[in-house]
Amino acid sequence: MYFQTYVELIEQFEQTHRQLNEQKAQLSGKLKVLAPLNISHGFLKPMWLAFTKQYPDIQLELLLNNQLVDLSKSQADIAIRVRPQADSMLHQKKLGSVDTLFVSTKAYLNSASAIKEPADLKQHRLIGTTLRNKWQLTNTQTNATYTHMCRFATTFNDTGFVKYLVCDEQGIALLPRFEVIDELKSQQLVQVLPHWRGENRDIYAIWPSARLLSKKAVCLKQFITDYIAEQL
User: What pLDDT is recorded for position 17?
Assistant: First the structure.
């Protein structure tokens, strides 16, 4: 009686299970991804364009937000984050590391006092974020370290807006290379204190620990890793 009652349900379950496994093994179907807004519009923009062109059968649903959206509630397959997350219920894989450097415009530097050492930053207009009130600096040649307690002329909770003010010749900022890579290439911005760097920004892939990554998500994770390695 049990067999006659449930045999069709079991067959349906097994068929659905096979279909799901086949979908996971294929590079096609929906892939929902959370990613930061600024880095996706800037540094990662060519990567997203190349990924969708190379894998047209993957239906990428890209949700951009600079706020930390809950991964489980959003039901996203994977998220891209700049810095590791404290949540122990998440798997995390480092995709690459980006240095931070001082930038300004030639016009601002020509109109301000000379800057040769980090201590000279006290004489300049500094533009920063609300996330940090001090900069931990390291000299790439000597490995010397220096901590600068910042007195910002202006602060934002968005690194993109920090860049806009620097490009407007309003001061100096410490920004991730991925934020200013295009402006440095075009020489709209130039490096200040070129041998000094701030703390690195690590880019991570995040996904729920209770969930196995689909082949599509694994493909994207490797695609981003390769792209970062090529660019930086």
Answer: 64
Whether this prediction's pTM lies above 0.85 is answered by no
- Give the fold, CATH level 3, of 99-200: D-Maltodextrin-Binding Protein; domain 2 (3.40.190)
Cβ atoms of 231 and 43 within 8 Å: the answer is yes
Spell out the domain ranges in the chain: 27-97+202-231, 99-200
The answer to whether residue 18 scores a pLDDT higher than 70 is no
What average pLDDT does the chain have?
89
Could you tell me which residue, 50 or 84, shows the higher pLDDT?
A: 50
